[in-house]
Amino acid sequence: MAGTLPAAGPAAAAEPQRVTVDLGASEGPVTLGANGTLYGLSDDGVPSDAMLVPLKITSISQKPEGGAQHPNGDALTVSRSFFRNGGGEINVMMQDIYAKWPYEDLGIEDYLPKVDKIVKEVSADPNSEHFVYIPFNEPDQIWYNLGTSDQAQYEVNRDRFFKDWKTVYERIRAIDPDARIAGPNESGYHNRLLTDFLAFAKRENVLPQVMTWHELDSSSLKNFQGNYDNYRSTERRLGIAPLKINIDEYANRRDLSVPGQLAQWVSMFERNKVYANQAYWDAAGNLDGNVVRSNIPNGGWWFFRWYAGMTGDTVKVTPPQANTVDTLQGLASYDEKRRQAQVLLGGSAGDADVVVRNVSRSAFGRTVTATVAEAAWSGYEGQHAAPRVLARTKVKVAADGTVTVPLRGLHKMSAYRIVLTPGGSGTPSAATVPWSASYEAEDAAITDGKVYTQGTVSNANGYAASGTKDVGSLNAATSKVDFTVDVPAAGTYDLAILYGNQSGTPATQKLSVDGQDPVTVSYPSTENWTYRAKKDVTVELPAGRHVLTLAKGDTEVTLDRIDLTARTSAAPSASYEATLADISGRPSFDYSSSAGVGTGALVLHAGDKAVFDVYAPRDGYYSVAARTSAPVRLELHGQKVTAVPGKALRLYLVAGNNRVAMTTAKTAAVRSLDVSGNGSTDGTLSYEGASATLAGGAELVDSRYASAGSYIGRLGNSAASTAEFTVQAPRSGRYMLVISYAHNERRDNGHSYNTDIMSRTADLTVGTSAPRTVTFKNTWSWDDYWTLGVPVDLKAGSNKVTFGNASAWAPNIDRIELGRVIG
User: Fold this and answer.
1) Model confidence at 290: pLDDT above 70
2) What is the mean pLDDT of the chain?
3) How close are the terminal C-alpha atoms of the chain, in Å?
4) Cα three-residue angle 571-574-578, rounded to 5 degrees
5) What is the pLDDT of residue 748?
6) Which residue, 621, 551, 327, is CA-closest to 457?
7) Residue 7 has pLDDT above 50, yes or no
8) Residue 631: CB partners within 8 Å, gap ≥ 6?
9) Cα–Cα distance for residue pair 426/442, rounded to 1 Å
């Protein structure tokens, strides 16, 4: 077929790899079981609601309320945001009540009163039926040493564990008779223990309702299928009905945030209909590396957004190699009612042919539209716009019922989505794919720097790096990296720099082209020098070969890779397909024409709703146009507005993800929601910290990193300590209040692989409205300013906007900005 992916370099092999998808071989309903996280939520509001609800998360694991293991992530606290955003169930890691790792072994008599307290609190919660108790965590290593090779010692240890399991199990059930209990929760799959455990638990009537173990090694990608099959065989042999399985810790640092790695893990879990939670290796509150700040998606988040969009049944996928580490793997779904097939795949570079079998002519017709998009790796802390559509093509369904979608120039760290919809009449708009090229820092000319190897198969808990290498130790006055690039035409190019900065303040480098006068590039802080983020800048380049130099500025920066992309328009734009939006009610799907985005039209009736996830690179105004056959109502930030065909609206979007809901009073056929713009601040109200009236010890503090040279510090920790802004609203209505803030509150719990950052809160009062508590995530340093958007209602004229916190310190506030939602 025409319109394949553009080449991104030499093919990895002479012949394309082959992935076969059989729409006629159902594996059962899509479960979305593999989208869970361990400590993925840290506080109510971190991550934001807009980042949680689109993912349809089925399970998370968190500590008991007040647990000493980490400073936040309490199960009951985060349950408020989790459940209001459609979350499934919460595993309570009961032993995280203890402070040390490994847990203090003070005996079962010390543990039981703690068990009592946890169960009483959880069982009293209005959502208690959605909690699962995990009484022991990795008992093979902690307290019981069940992994010993000495069989006699193993039996002694095993019997002690079994006795304690029964004691705690019955203690939980005595307080909460309907409790669901999970275990044994080993650090890996061990047939010896599980066989003994199941036999004991069945005999003593203490079987868990959920079977849990961990898969925390690169070899899990090879071994999990065998582990799963062995476990189910053991159940059958012992006469135990199949238990729900939750692999409640999976993947390594090198996997988290990387779409191509996540595709491998998720495909094997979804195929087996098990639930699974990504592991917690770093900081809480970012869905284990998939959320930037509180509200910004990275490539990993978009992969899970795609996964959440799969409907109907999963179907059989045959990869080039099954049960093999770091290979092309995939999962696919077929929704017969919607007449949609989706394929997600990733994990390998080079070329591939995706052969889809049993494409029903009664469902799809004689042609299908194949839409291919890419979710690239943007780092743990690197923003990622809506995935770029690489190809939209109409393809004839072959006589044998197959459709072949060729993919060329795959990137190993990316994931790809193929959507098949009925072709109908018309021709979809060709995908616009600008010229782009990537350059690894380790392949560039390096002066006074050092190449480091990061996450690999053998060092799976190393951080992910493009090509597994980066360039660090760029700390000498003469340190620099010279990238030789070759561009096809003169013009403006977007330059994306994958970097790390652990200096404790914003860091800088000097960027020059062909030795000309340099400009300063400023890099926000990251968790550490290997926790990759992305800085976007622009450069003007004549056609041909050039040397882009990144030289040391005022502090040290680690460089991983740069991407150059030709800018094809004055402002970025994206079309969000209506037939792939989240829907409620009973809308219908019209594929009579594949014009426009190619995926047909969603027909909304009164009572139906479609919700789009719209990305904005920064806070500000954007042009939003609904491609519909009739007027529709849009709702954004709690504000409703009518959108008519052919007329764009000027709407205020916050940086990151924005949920835009669409309804109609009658009937409207919707093809897409089209969004463009750079985030204009024309017409916004802006107030620096110096304009606020301060009281109770809050003070203005000089800082060269603040926007106007100062910020509001020492705010809160007393009812008298407040900062009051007087804002002048030109009109009454709903506004977005964007707060620029910083703080670096931490509590070190002594765990070498966890960064125990904490959030701060502020009580926000607007006019005479009741105060509301707003949560501000840690910004990695005291000198990095992030923004947080809060919808507020203002009356025309003067309004008071007051910040405070009577019981704890609020964040430092740099400035505020307000934009009316409808500009």
Assistant:
1) yes
2) 97
3) 44
4) 155
5) 85
6) 327
7) no
8) 642, 643, 644, 645, 664, 668
9) 47
Q: How many beta carbons lie within 10 A of that of residue 190, not counting itself?
A: 17
182 is written with which tokens?
């999970």
Dist. CA 171–CA 154, nearest whole Å = 25
Residue 9 has a pLDDT of 42
- The residue written with tokens 């304009």 in the block is 691
Residues 620-631 pLDDT 10s = 999 999 999 999
**Residue 337: is its pLDDT beyond 80?**
yes
- Amino acid at position 410, single letter: L
Tokens of 313: 């049944």
Collect all residues with Cβ–Cβ distance below 8 Å to 383 and sequence separation of at least 6: 292, 296, 297, 298, 534, 536, 617, 656
Q: What is the DSSP code (8-state) at residue 4?
A: P
Cβ–Cβ under 8 Å, residues 183 and 212: yes
Biggest CA–CA distance in the chain, Å, is: 80
**Which residue type is seen at 724?**
E
Looking at residue 14, its pLDDT comes to 63
Is it the case that residue 8 has pLDDT exceeding 60? Answer: no
Report, as an integer, the average pLDDT of 36-42: 98
130 by DSSP, 3-state: which?
helix
Q: What percent of the chain has a predicted confidence (pLDDT) above 70?
A: 98
How would you class 810 by CB atoms within 10 Å of its CB: exposed for 0-12, middle for 13-18, buried for 19 or more? buried
613/130 Cα distance (integer angstroms): 27
Comparing CA positions, the residue from 533, 475, 540, 472 lying closest to residue 511 is 540
**Tens-place pLDDT, residues 556-572:** 999 999 999 999 988 99
Residue 2 has pLDDT above 70, yes or no: no
Tokens (6 digits) for 793: 């209602």
**Distance of alpha carbon 702 from alpha carbon 710, whole angstroms:** 4
Are 405 and 561 in contact, with CB atoms under 8 Å apart?
A: no
- Are residues 217 and 182 in contact, defined by beta-carbon separation less than 8 angstroms? no
Cβ atoms 769, 730 nearer than 8 A: no
Q: Supply 299's token pair.
A: 């490539």
Phi first, then psi: what are they for 679, rounded to 5°?
Answer: 85, 60
When pLDDT is averaged across residues 88-92 and rounded to a whole number, the result is: 98
Question: 314 by DSSP, 3-state: which?
Answer: strand
522 near 574, Cβ under 8 Å? Answer: no
Distances (CA, A) of 673 to 472, 576, 592, 643, 666: 42, 5, 19, 10, 18
- Give residues with Cβ within 8 angstroms of 67, minimum separation 6: 74, 93, 96, 97, 98
Check pLDDT > 80 for residue 437: yes
Q: How does DSSP assign 383-427, residue by residue?
A: --PSPEEEEEEEEEPPTTS-EEEEEEEE-TT-EEEEEEEE--BS-
* Nearest of 729, 34, 12 to residue 344 by alpha carbon: 34
* Residue whose token pair is 């991104």: 8
What are the backbone dihedrals phi and psi of residue 730, each rounded to the nearest 5 degrees, phi first? -70, -30
| Helix 108-123 with 151-175: angle, nearest 10 deg | 40
Average pLDDT over residues 103-116: 97
- DSSP-derived 3-state class of residue 226: helix
User: Which whole-number Å values give the CA distances from 521 to 303, 437, 508, 562, in the listed order?
Assistant: 29, 20, 5, 13
Q: What is residue 752's predicted lDDT score, i.e. its pLDDT?
A: 78
What is the rounded distance in angstroms from the CA atom of residue 636 to the CA atom of residue 630?
19
105 Cβ contact partners less than 8 Å away, ≥ 6 residues apart: 142, 143
Q: What is the pLDDT of residues 477-488, one digit of tens each?
A: 999 999 999 999
Contact, 289 vs 254, CB < 8 A? no
Backbone angles phi, psi at 566, to 5 degrees: -65, 135
* Contact between 329 and 263 (Cβ < 8 Å): yes
* Residue 296 β-bridge partners: 292
- Which residue has 């071994």 as its token pair? 223
Distance CA 509, CA 491 (A): 23
CA atoms of 719 and 586, how far apart (whole Å) = 50
Q: Provide the token pair at 505.
A: 């303040």
User: Which residue type is seen at 798?
Assistant: S
**Complete DSSP assignment for 26-67:** EEEE---GGGEEES---BTTBS-HHHHGGG---EEEEBPTT-
